[in-house]
Predict the 3D structure of the following.
Amino acid sequence: MVQTDAKRAWIESVLGYRFPDSPRRPAPLSIQQALADFDAAQAEVDRQIGQLQLKLQNSPDAELRRIGQFGMNALTGNTRVKLQAAILELRASLPQGSPKLAGNAGRLAGQMADYLVHDVKVRACDRNPFKVQVSIAATLGGAAGRLCAALQQAA
């Protein structure tokens, strides 16, 4: 039996095949850290966007006040909502983690990172003329990219 277990472990590690009755392994720490970093990045960008919204909402210009009503979901091209749902499912599978759920969340995190780096509205917010420090692409886009990489390793 020991020899069989060793052979199965070799097959799983070298060939990437997982036997249906294999014991679940704990999620790598890098996933836990990447999730924590992503959460912190979201909180930081939410704070930054809140400050920019406040500045716009207090503007004498009616159009700027209207623009100030939009939150971060409007700036993330709806990638955030899908990713949040996938992360909820993934977190429910932790500490073992599900390769399928990790792959799905990783794919969505990659889409979000790509969107945030290339979107014109994100770039405009990051370079806003209202002297409000905003770093959506670097902070949230970077965290989404790191989350994508960590999750792809587990998929």
